[in-house]
Batch of 2 targets.
Target 1
Amino acid sequence: MKGAGLLPALALLCAGLASAQTETQHAFDGSIKLARRLDVVLHARVRTQPGLLGFYQGRLGPIFEYSVNGRFTLIAGYYYARQENSEADYIAGHRWFGGGEVSLWSSKASEADARALAEWFDLAQGSDYSRYRFRFRVSGKQKAAPYGSVENFLDARGWRSTRYAAGLRVGAGARVTMDFGYFLEPRRADVGRTRHMFMTGVHWRFGGRRLPGSDL
């Protein structure tokens, strides 16, 4: 039969979707200029698992960005988070991070950058741990512009996960930009199932040098 070869492929696709984890995240950021080279980004984000935990995570905190020169930016920040576990308890946690981002190229139409960060998670329950992340991103510069990135996460056991992200960033006036995006994240077996994340973001700029992002 002509269509017989499609049946195994469809079965594998359905099995992959059934074993994956689908979530949504919604971020809100405001960038404020503190000094000529120093900005602070006030960040908040929530995540949901539709059909499972529902709303399960919220976090907020500041991100400081210092422009060393026109191409390199130092990044440091802190988040306080609360996350629901399978017993429906909300567990508090603290996260500190720091690193840098470098511009690889910039033209009138597009730009590319690379970022490296080290993170420390201090958890109220469970083991504290460190995580390291390395991202490459390409973005358009138009009022409505696409972007795409790939980011690898490492920890003490080696590779932890990889995020393949794409989206659309839309300007809504001089100060406000909105994001609509998606990422696919294959993860190590002990970390969790492959994750599908549907993202939205609203970003305000109050004199900040750079447009805030929601993927930290």
Target 2
Amino acid sequence: MLFAVVASAMMLMIGFAAIVSDDSSADDNYVSNGTFTVNVRTSVNTSWVTDTVAAYDGALALSRALALHNISNDVDTTMYSYPTQYVEIDYQYGAFTTIGGIVDTETESWHTYFYHITDGWTPVTDTLGWYKPFGDYDEDHRTANIAVIYGTDEDVDGIMEASSTQPSHSSTVVPVSDIINNPNFLVSFYIKVNSTAYAALIADNKDIDVGQSTVTKQQVLDGVYVYGYGSDMYLALKNGLGDKVNGQEIVPYDDSMGYEVVYGWLNSLLGVSSVWMNQGQSATDPYDDVWAWWQEYYYYSVDTGTGNVVGSTSDFAIGLLSPLQDAPLSHPTFALYFAAGTM
């Protein structure tokens, strides 16, 4: 469901960093985060150690389950870093090489599984940080149950295929019905197409396409607040604007074009995508050309006279941000501002 409010000329919207939601204090047990069942087996000759933990993703879940038993590990719980002035996304988020001092050998190794809603226990294709327990998330990375087991390929296959030796899968994915209209999953988006950028859009024979959404083109030109619910911002935006959101949906990235495009990268919104406006000072440097594109802000304010956005742009695709406090990048509000600038 979409809710939209035209930005009043007298309204000032300030972005802020985190939403407060505490599972432990929720008397009505209203969903405020995901829950995982984590199973660890350090040898085919031992039994499963099983814990249930609150966690936004599989990386955090495994790390927290091991911490309950003071088991040493090197689970990667850092989703991003700044090796230079530019952010670098860690696509190995949730990877590990040792648990309890046990490492891979030539004959035995760690194997990681997730419980798929239709296929049952399935080997992971990506590291655990990209698996989440939410019903609106990518089906092939959607789970509330994970398992790691050490052994030979043959022995591990035998254990994971036999119902009598399979681990527990007692946790459930948060259903979409518990996400929609749940304030813990609510994201506020301020959306505006700047007048100068709009002129460039028209000159390029393009226009705003609101489709069946309840916002109008004039609202988008004036500045409009749109609200959506989702386990991440990309999914919340899709909840708010439906098929007028076009982005990269492969988890964790798509490299079909010869380079990596991270999950949740916004390609177009309301039919509007990047438009080249004019060449910069250097004919050989494309980065000083002037473009109009969707500039994304997580700290921002709205000019009371023009409705234009000023503030701090985001370093991250919106799919990496979430309104849930436990997420690696937690944020409850965002601005999408189609305006001119140099890339």
